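Please review this one:
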Amino acid sequence: MARLSRLAEKKKVARYALANDCIAAMVKVSEEGGEVGDVYGSWRIMRLSREVGGFPLIPRDVIEGMASRLLASDKEWVMKLWYDEGAVFGGVLKMRFADPAALGSEILKLLPSYSRRLEVQKNGAEKGENYSVNLVADFGEDLMLCLEQFLRGTFSVFGLSNIDSEVSRNILHMLFQAQKESK
């Protein structure tokens, strides 16, 4: 209730009016088959898409087809493009999350339903901390290669370098380590 009161005060509306607006929006979502848990993730992906100049309503088959054709014609350019866009996305995420370990659950909320699992785990290692990233998704191998570069770019913003990767049709395993600071 305290959060609702603060938000209502910030918006200069009555707490009950704000609560009624929230309930009315959820009723509409529910009537169209949505779930309460869908709302935040859907809103967040649209907001992040605007922040990075994205367009989220492109069918997966279109993206898969584009990735395959572009990789066949100019792999180096495509990989750099995905890396660079991952770095832009990482910059947006870094404003909200200081620790990359928090990204797994947050990014998974943003990924479409065909992304079945994304885990980001912080591991203590003899040579320093590292992060393991595991993505299980219903994507083809070409798009998974692109996502590997995207995640490399995303985590580079957090000062992490990719030291190991395995990519297959549905599974991406990556290991990141803190970059050594130059003296």
